[in-house]
Automatic annotation (TrEMBL):
Keywords: Hydrolase. GO terms for molecular function: hydrolase activity. This is Alpha/beta hydrolase. Residues 3-229 form the AB hydrolase-1 domain. The keyword Hydrolase applies. InterPro entries: AB_hydrolase_1, AB_hydrolase_fold, Sec-Metab_Biosynth_Hydrolase.
Length: 238
């Protein structure tokens, strides 16, 4: 199986460094993406949009030729990367076996990842830890926080605040797995039952599973081996 790993805000492909090898040891091909504008802190990013990131993932999908019998392609999107994965599923629903949302849910038409983050000059730097909720930071100790901040790259404001555009309802036929970390699976099911606005697109997907991986918002740093195991289990079901 080809597994495309899409990072969230402030992260590049190296953020999957402890996850991708486990997937490859299990016999899969892992593609950890560094999206446009995220190549370095000095990269030009002020004009990059959410659509540009979706198109970059679509380009990788189109470049792959899965071997017969391997089951196709799985997208894995962490945090804001889940919105990008869903946009790519809308563009290429017939190429995908499953989309895995790591502490995220699908982003519906017209919605944004987060337009409240502090931004300047067209980019969104990693905020001070005080701006995050305590649930975000579970297990992210001082050493991990320092390492995260050292590697963090400002995200394009046009990605964080850009509106999702969807057009193909076949995206709802692509099976989905939500790996619940800072929120529990039980809480997500309650939000779905209560028609919480941010869960409405997830509720429209015809095949959804929810699995728990209790930790903070960045399991690729706090519980990387367990995250890889949860992804592998989802891939096996694909």
């Amino acid at each position: 199986m080809d597994i495309i790993l899409i990072p969230g805000l402030w992260l590049d492909g190296s953020s999957w460094g402890e996850v991708a090898p486990v997937l490859e040891e299990a016999g899969h091909r892992a593609h950890a993406l560094t999206l446009p504008g995220m190549e370095s802190r000095d990269a030009a990013r002020s004009g990059i949009t959410l659509r540009d990131h979706v198109d970059a993932v679509v380009g990788v999908i189109d470049s792959l030729d899965p071997a017969p019998g391997t089951g196709g392609i799985v997208l894995v999107g962490h945090s804001g990367g889940g919105a990008i994965a869903f946009g790519a599923a809308d563009a290429r629903p017939d190429r995908l076996a499953r989309v895995v949302y790591v502490d995220s849910v699908p982003l519906g038409e017209g919605a944004v990842i987060n337009d409240e983050l502090p931004a300047a000059n067209g980019e969104v730097p990693l905020p001070d830890w005080s701006l995050f909720e305590p649930e975000d930071l579970v297990d992210l100790d001082d050493a991990l926080r320092a390492a995260f901040r050292e590697r963090a790259v400002p995200s394009p404001q046009g990605v964080a605040a850009g509106r999702q555009r969807l057009s193909d309802e076949r995206r709802l036929d692509v099976p989905a797995t939500v790996i619940a970390c800072e929120f529990t699976g039980e809480a997500l099911r309650e939000w779905l039952a209560g028609d919480a606005p941010f869960t409405r697109e997830l509720a429209r997907i015809r095949d959804v599973e929810i699995v728990d991986l209790p930790t903070g918002h960045w399991p690729q740093f706090t519980r990387p081996k367990d995250l890889a195991g949860a992804i592998l289990a989802a891939v096996d079901r694909a």
